[in-house]
Design goal:
The complex is a heterodimer of chains A (381) and B (347).
Chain A: H1 13-16, H2 18-29, H3 35-39, H4 47-55, H5 74-86, H6 92-108, H7 111-122, E1 128-131, E2 147-151, E3 154-162, E4 172-178, E5 189-195, E6 201-206, E7 215-226, E8 230-231, H8 237-243, H9 245-250, H10 259-269, H11 275-303, H12 309-333, H13 345-356, H14 367-377
Helix pairs in contact in A: 2-5, 6-7, 10-12, 10-13, 11-12, 12-13, 12-14
Chain B: H1 2-17, H2 20-25, H3 33-42, H4 60-72, H5 79-91, E1 101-104, E2 106-112, E3 115-124, E4 131-136, E5 142-147, E6 151-155, E7 165-173, E8 177-180, H6 189-219, E9 221-222, E10 225-226, H7 231-257, H8 264-289, H9 300-310, H10 317-331, H11 336-342
Parallel strand pairs in B: 1-4
Antiparallel strand pairs in B: 2-3, 3-7, 4-5, 5-8, 6-7, 9-10
């Protein structure tokens, strides 16, 4: 039974030992970090912070030591990541490289690709973005149209990506594109590591409703790529993309997006909550505690070499419901008016996360897609 | 490993002896004496007692699958309560109790010399069991084992699943055993322990509910296909599955972390999450089953009628949320995340 994938586990002592170190590091590195900046969570971009973190050996931890990584267990990385996220540290610059691009290059890349990218990733100096969605291909990712046509030992790429977080800051993109015809819906796609300084690439930031620019449109106009830029083999694209989903969907970032608001809320409510406040905050606390334990259960599966994509989908869906509930409950518990500017830490963080909240159940797989995956795992599809 | 041995042995025992018919048979006041006898013979009733007392010295970690199975099979007997009772007695140096036993988490007792008087409320299977464990609250709390034959009066009730929940009146009753409550245990250990029991039982019942519901929607055909093919049904079961998983993990965490004493934060989180899952699960379970799930003949109600009561027993989600919320607000925002990662509430 799929439910049996969820077994409670404790964090091993060696991984747990990192926690105090990360807390101390954060106290020094982010001494007066504003509450609103913390609310940005993993969308906060700070190259200097990423390099400092890299210097401490906390970027690319799971990568081998020969590349500057730490050969760390999934639990060690988990402890570091959750401390950074709970504090709202600005990890965006290296986030995708650390979570997925680095491991993907390790698994599918050539020795040259590994030697070129992995050490820089581990130093917190090389930033990646992920090129997947297109205007006509969101939830239905397999319907992408961007195409690389082979010309000798070159590939000519035309097309467009959208919702690409950090494309305006990143050095490289790993992009899913069509490279051949196929009878199968999921066939004929490959991934390329694309240098974003190449001619023919245009990056246009997309402003979201809060005024932030995290997302981008990226246009490819006859961009020349070489065979050496393809990662893994031709036609392997869909497999590569789905293989990383369990990691992408199960981590603490899937339920910690609203932590900054939970912190300001507890401060705002104070030491003597009324009955409604205590009940709602207690309920949220039980859910947070349990989501974390569910996430750790999935981490154990990953650490043991399994691919717990079903369990990861459960964590992500339940986690995004939790993240979205926090602004609504904060609104329920006090008459504080959300303020875009002015007001207090709490009123600004409340405003910001209330507006960001819709994106929590859209990014990384929409609610409807995830529930379909969960249903499949129950034997219903 | 003890846990695995317990699981396979008890699952076989329940499969052989606990049918839907026996669950129904155990409702509304019938005591399944033969089945209780089988449980005593198997040694499971004493599992939580120290080895020196003839028990297995089982931890809550070891007992997790036992309690889960009690929930999965809707066991209409106080095995969970007996396990909690013998665990508390073992910690307080009182010998393990043989025979059927229950607990009185809600008790108003006054000690007068060697006798106790007062009221034991909502004792599971109170009218049937031979012994009840209770705590006399005072500056020096006392654990007592009461012989139910010494009760002067009873007020009987049953919960939504027809499980007896009886008030027992004591007048100058001499306890069979008594001892000071161990220093590592709090005065409300029976309430917190009961919350732990029901959390795991609910997790087991929810697991069974999910399986039953998944099977049903794959079998029931309407509009030319199994109703499992409809997206709305798929999504309802997905939501159910998430809650079942949350209940399971939180219940297991509470068991594993309750070693020498009951782990306060994990136990509260388990009761809150499992109780919420119970409401969601029962509602969705009946929803996808349609009319057939509403009948007495079909077995769904054996699970949902238990969920509807167990979520209220030993503190509802609201009760424990209130306590947990007050604790974290009192400690302040800076202590919040450290409490989550340590699993320990600030004092």
């Amino acid at each position: 039974m799929s439910i049996n994938q969820f077994n409670y586990c404790r964090i091993p002592a060696d991984a747990e030992a990192l926690r105090t170190q990360v807390r101390q590091f954060l106290q020094q590195a982010l001494p007066d970090y504003a509450a609103e900046r913390r609310a940005d969570s993993w969308m906060g971009f700070n190259a200097q912070f990423s390099r400092k973190l890299g210097a401490r050996g906390w970027v690319g931890m799971a990568l081998p030591k020969q590349y500057g990584g730490a050969d760390a267990s999934a639990f060690s990385r988990y402890v570091v990541i959750e401390e950074l996220l709970a504090a709202g540290a600005p990890v965006s610059a290296h986030w995708f490289a650390d979570r997925q691009s680095g491991p993907q290059i390790l698994q599918y890349g050539t020795p040259e690709q590994r030697d070129f990218h992995l050490p820089a990733i581990c130093r917190g100096e090389r930033y990646f973005c992920i090129g997947m969605s297109e205007p006509g291909a969101g939830s239905d990712l397999a319907s992408i149209k961007s195409r690389a046509r082979q010309q000798g030992n070159k590939w000519i790429l035309n097309g467009q990506k959208v919702w690409t977080t950090n494309a305006h800051h990143a050095h490289y993109m790993i992009a899913l594109v069509r490279t051949s015809e196929s009878d199968s819906r999921h066939g004929g796609m490959s991934q390329f590591i694309i240098d974003l300084t190449l001619p023919g690439i245009t990056v246009r930031p997309i402003k979201d409703l809060t005024g932030s620019k995290h997302f981008n449109e990226v246009f490819f106009d006859n961009v020349e790529l070489s065979d050496a830029d393809m990662i893994g083999s031709e036609g392997q694209g869909w497999h590569q993309v789905t293989a990383e989903l369990a990691v992408e969907r199960s981590g603490p970032e899937r339920f910690l997006s609203s932590m900054a608001l939970l912190h300001t809320l507890i401060d705002a409510v104070g030491k003597a909550p009324d009955r409604l406040q205590s009940r709602e905050i207690g309920r949220l606390t039980a859910r947070l505690f349990t989501l974390r334990n569910m996430s750790l259960a999935v981490t154990k599966q990953l650490n043991d070499g399994h691919n717990p994509s079903w369990a990861a989908s459960c964590v992500k869906d339940l986690g995004s419901v939790f993240e979205q509930d926090i602004p609504e409950i904060a609104h329920l518990l006090s008459e504080t008016l959300p303020t875009k500017t002015g007001g207090t830490d709490h009123s600004r963080v409340l405003a910001y996360l209330m507006q960001q909240a819709p994106s929590f159940s859209l990014r990384g797989g929409t609610r409807e897609i995830l529930r379909g995956i969960i249903a499949r795992g129950l034997g219903l599809r | 490993m003890m846990r695995d041995l317990f699981e396979s042995a008890l699952e076989k025992l329940f499969t052989d002896h606990v049918s839907a018919a026996s669950v129904i048979g155990g409702e509304d006041g019938t005591w399944l004496a033969e089945l209780w006898g089988v449980l005593e013979e198997s040694g499971f009733a004493l599992a939580s007692a120290p080895e020196a007392q003839g028990g297995a010295g089982a931890s809550w970690d070891d007992l997790f699958p036992v309690l889960l199975l009690c929930g999965r099979f809707s066991l209409p007997l106080p095995l969970p309560e007996t396990l909690l009772g013998n665990w508390v007695l073992g910690k307080c140096g009182i010998q393990a109790v043989r025979g059927s036993m229950s607990i009185a988490a809600d008790a108003e007792l006054i000690l007068d010399g060697q006798t106790v008087s007062g009221l034991l409320r909502q004792v599971p299977w109170g009218r049937h069991v031979t012994q009840v464990v209770a705590i006399v609250e005072s500056d020096e709390p006392l654990v007592v084992v009461i012989d139910t034959a010494a009760c002067s009066d009873q007020r009987l009730s049953t919960n939504t699943a027809g499980e007896p929940r009886d008030d027992l009146v004591l007048k100058d009753a001499t306890p069979l055993f008594s001892a000071p409550l161990a220093a590592c245990l709090e005065c409300d250990v029976l309430k917190r322990g009961g919350a732990l029991l029901r959390s795991v039982q609910m997790a087991g019942a929810l697991q069974e509910l999910l399986q039953l519901s998944s099977n049903y929607v794959n079998e029931r055909v309407q509009f030319g296909k199994p109703i499992a093919k409809f997206q709305v049904v798929q999504h309802q079961l997905a939501v159910m599955a998430e809650h079942v998983a949350a209940a399971r993990v939180s219940a297991e965490a509470a068991c594993v972390e309750s070693t020498d004493t009951l782990a306060s934060l994990p136990v509260m989180a388990a009761k809150i999450c499992a109780s919420e899952a119970a409401g969601v699960g029962a509602s969705l379970g009946h929803g996808v089953h349609g009319a057939i799930g509403f009948t007495h003949e079909y077995s769904l109600h054996l699970l949902t009628r238990r969920l509807w009561s167990w979520r209220s027993e030993y503190g509802s989600a609201t009760y424990w949320s209130d306590e947990l919320g007050r604790a974290v607000c009192h400690a302040g925002a800076l202590q919040y995340w450290p409490s989550i990662t340590s699993g320990v509430l600030p004092q």
